[in-house]
């Protein structure tokens, strides 16, 4: 029996305007982006299709829209449902939408409020996010804690694999940590091109405002298990889902543990549903063999064909 997990990427902003999915005439892509465009009162489809300048604040909506559009196309061709879904960072919203727990429209409303709260919370604060590759988590934690003893704060934002860690926080603090690791051999540091600083301890205080806002929404039950990547737990109630969304602002993404949890359920097929192949690469770091990307478009159809033929 096929046991499949669908993974949704959270941030992949590089080369987004060159997205191949938007260069083909498929109504499912147009429809999803038109839905988002109407809500935002901003023509995402036109800007992407004709490679016009796209305002940075709209990028999160594009990332979610592409994942949702892809999954809608997927369900038209693949009849069986996945055993589990999980989203990395922003991808958590895509997982909730595609599992029918949350409507696309409500997700956009919630996301807009979330972005407003983050922006206001970090107003007049310079922030950064960096990937550190090649160092142990315990060492990075120790340096972050040492630097954070001052007024400037930096913390772990994502644990993608044993040796791929993301940090976030105030600019001065992040750069102090990065300066330390730049001196070490075989350690690589990469700045993340982000719109908003996420999974950051600086957001804990104002996350309560987001939780209050979430009380106005009802989340449906689903036949598909959705795994919370900040707790490594399957969400079973509306209360748990709301908690996962507001805690996501300040808690780190435990992606390494998320993949481990899925593997323990004897689910060994991992499909990244979205633009780019960031999660597919991370899967290789975590020694996952049967992992498939849906980007570029030829990979989408190739992956569909492979899954159809798996018994």
UniProtKB/TrEMBL annotation:
Domain Malonyl-CoA:ACP transacylase (MAT) stretches:
7-299
Q: Which keywords describe this protein according to UniProt?
A: Acyltransferase, Transferase
Which Pfam families does this UniProt record tie to the protein?
Answer: Acyl_transf_1
Question: InterPro entries, from UniProt?
Answer: Ac_transferase_dom_sf, Acyl_transferase_dom, Acyl_Trfase/lysoPLipase, Mal-CoA-ACP_Trans/PKS_FabD, Malonyl_CoA-ACP_transAc, Malonyl_transacylase_ACP-bd
Q: What is its EC number?
A: 2.3.1.39
Coiled-coil region list: none
- What is its EC class? transferase
* Similarity comment text for this entry: Belongs to the fabD family.
Query: What is the name of this protein?
Result: Malonyl CoA-acyl carrier protein transacylase
Q: Which gene encodes it?
A: fabD
């Amino acid at each position: 029996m096929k046991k499949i997990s669908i993974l949704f990427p959270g941030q992949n902003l590089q080369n987004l305007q060159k997205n191949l999915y938007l260069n083909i005439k498929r109504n499912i892509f147009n429809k999803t982006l038109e839905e988002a465009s109407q809500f935002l009162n901003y023509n995402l489809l036109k800007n992407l299709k004709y490679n016009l300048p796209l305002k940075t604040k709209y990028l999160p909506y594009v990332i979610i829209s592409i994942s949702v559009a892809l999954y809608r196309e997927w369900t038209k061709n693949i009849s069986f449902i996945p055993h589990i879904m999980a989203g990395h960072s922003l991808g958590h919203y895509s997982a909730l939408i595609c599992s029918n727990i949350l409507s696309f429209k409500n997700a956009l409303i919630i996301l807009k409020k979330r972005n407003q709260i983050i922006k206001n919370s970090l107003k007049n604060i310079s922030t950064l996010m960096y990937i550190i590759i090649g160092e142990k988590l315990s060492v990075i934690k120790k340096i972050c804690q040492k630097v954070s003893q001052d007024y400037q704060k930096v913390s772990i934002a994502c644990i993608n694999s044993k040796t791929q860690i993301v940090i976030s926080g105030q600019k001065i603090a992040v750069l102090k940590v990065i300066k330390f690791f730049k001196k070490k051999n075989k350690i690589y540091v990469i700045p993340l091109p982000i719109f908003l600083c996420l999974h950051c301890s600086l957001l804990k205080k104002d996350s309560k405002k987001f939780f209050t806002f979430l009380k106005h929404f009802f989340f449906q039950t689903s036949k598909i298990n959705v795994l919370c990547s900040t707790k490594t737990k399957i969400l079973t109630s509306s209360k748990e889902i709301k908690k996962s969304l507001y805690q996501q602002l300040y808690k780190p993404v435990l992606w390494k543990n998320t993949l481990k949890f899925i593997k323990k359920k004897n689910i060994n097929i991992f499909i990244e549903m979205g633009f780019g192949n960031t999660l597919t690469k991370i899967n290789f770091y975590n020694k996952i063999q049967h992992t498939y990307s849906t980007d570029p478009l030829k990979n989408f159809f190739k992956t569909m064909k492979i899954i159809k033929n798996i018994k």
